[in-house]
Amino acid sequence: MFATLLGALPRPPLPADAPPDALVEAAVRAQEAAGLDPVTDGSPPASAVSDLARAWSATQRLTERAVKQAVAGPYSAAHGEAGTPERARATLDRATAINVTLRELTAAGCPLIEIHEPAATAIGSDEAERALFREAHLRLLDGVEGSHLSLALTGGAADGAGIETLFAAPYASLAVDLIAGPENWRLVVDTPGDRGIICGALSPAAGSDDGPELLLWAAAYAASTGGRGQERVGLAGASSFADLSWEVAVRKLERLGEAARLADEPLNQRLQAIDPRAVSSRSAALGRVDRRPSQRPDQGDAST
Q: Which of 86, 101, 167, 217 is most buried, taking the most CB atoms under 10 A from its CB?
């Protein structure tokens, strides 16, 4: 089990004149200390595509852990003009431009590239939008080889688009916001078992209950779907931590790392770490999962 950041961190508490590389290093060190892997530079998904491979390389030199690169996806970039021919052209042109950057990242050795598409939550059953998303992502990933490619959906429910739309391009894993979009569990169930799932199950709210129970339940349930197995499941925050204070964000990173470690511990150690009231209602937190592959969290007590 692994834990990773899904979105940005707030600015580290460094002097106002601190150089950018010092801010990146502070973000990397905080993730290392919490046990996250892969780590990021702490920035939002990159919207500028020039020199991204160089920036990723600079971050990778700061750590022995894998560094992933988050990139803003082409569908969301022009979402404000939905349905217009100009937007469709802009989306596809953007996909072509980002494709060049993805090839540069893979050539530089980037092991994991995460494409963020928050606007996918608005696709629903609109066939024109589904087709545009599919075409854009097929163009985006065309010829990109040598890196793990992950699609990240945050900010709400994207299940209306359908797994056929979202996985039209050859993504190796899916990262989903399960706090703002609990319906995204339908996507988890529908995702083929040979693909990875990153469960965005830790709330980005400052006052949320960040105990390990829900995280362990989410990880175990995701591992049970499609015969996926724990080795194809990770934990993450549901979305960006950028609006939090640095201290609160660091505590959330620590919670993620702790839950990932607990997921790999023997049953008796997990029992000691969780609230005993969670044992009966969320027995999946203990690894006791025995559900039909077709059963979804909205069918029965899995969401309680």
A: 217
Helix (H) / strand (E) element for 165: namely helix 163-166
- What's 214's domain CATH number? 3.20.20.210
How does DSSP classify residue 232?
G
Half-sphere exposure of 85 (CA within 13 A, CB side): 0
Structure tokens given for 249: 């964000």
- Output the average pLDDT for the chain: 89
- For 38, the domain range is 2-286
- Whether 150 is in a domain gets the answer yes
Residue with tokens 């059953």: 125
Q: What is the pLDDT of residue 281?
A: 45
Pull the structure tokens for residue 242: 């950028």
Q: How far is CA 202 from CA 67, 73, 136, 140, in A?
A: 21, 23, 30, 29
Question: Would you place residue 222 in the very low, low, confident or very high pLDDT band (cuts 50, 70, 90)?
Answer: very high
- Is 44 part of any domain? yes
Q: How many CB atoms lie within 10 A of CB 77?
A: 20
pLDDT tens sequence across 4-13: 999 999 999 9
Does 302 fall in a domain?
A: no
Q: In this structure, what token pair is assigned to residue 188?
A: 């988890």
The β-bridge partners of 235 are 3, 199
Neighbouring CB atoms inside 10 A of 275's CB total 12
Question: The pTM is what?
Answer: 0.88
Asked if omega into 38 is within 30° of 0 (cis), the reply is: yes
Q: What is the 3-state secondary structure (H, E, C) of 118-163?
A: HHHHHCCCCHHHHHHHHHHHHHHHCCCCCCEEEEEECCCCCHHHCH
Domain contains 295: no
Return phi, psi of residue 70, to 5°: -90, 135
**Which residues have a Cβ under 8 Å from the Cβ of 300 and sit 6 or more positions away?**
none
Query: How deeply is 127 buried, as exposed, middle or buried, from its count of CB atoms within 10 A (0-12, 13-18, 19+)?
Result: exposed
